[in-house]
Amino acid sequence: MAAAIGVGIMMIGLLVGLAVMRQVYLDSVPTSALPQDAAADIYDTFVRFLRNSTATVLVIAVVTALAGYLYGPGRGARWVRGGASSGTGATGRSMARHGLRTGATGRWLGAHSKWTSGIVVAGGTLALALWNYPTPGAVALVLGIVVLVLALLGILAAASGPAGQPAAGDQPQPVIRPG
Predict the structure, then answer these.
(1) Which of 53, 43, 49 is nearest to 19 (CA)?
(2) I need a labelling partner for 69 at 20 to 30 A (CA). Which of 27, 37, 126, 174 fits?
(3) What is the pLDDT of residues 36-65, one digit of tens each?
(4) What is the pLDDT of residues 65-106, one digit of tens each?
(5) Measured between alpha carbons, how far is 138 from 114 in angstroms, rounded to an integer?
């Protein structure tokens, strides 16, 4: 969290510095040599990718700090995790009561929730790492997909139904004995 907060503060400083330097540049260019609009367009073109990359890194730093907090031992983090867990659990149990059970698959997801969550988060991280030019919107999109998949995994794990009760598709086959 400390590293993410530090990177976020540095990105805010860089964005403020770029804005201040834009004004310094525009004030230093004589209007007789170059019109104000043209000077602004030139500056904006030169720093466009730096500004976009800085904003993207800022969003990633905020998401990383927030995720670090939510995985931590704080009271607020426990409350958020508990609320999310009870929400997905209630949804999954409601599905199971209405006959939509996930059976053995749901029980496996519940038993291996740390692994499946880690794989989903690693997949989101890999998607951002392989993205050619990630923007803040791309980070938000990947974050939304990761949160949605984690919620779905929690619901599917809770929809497994009671451990001794087979799911609708898991009906035992009759045993045929000779003789």
Answers:
(1) 43
(2) 126
(3) 999 999 999 999 999 999 999 999 999 999
(4) 999 998 889 999 999 989 999 999 999 999 999 888 988 999
(5) 25
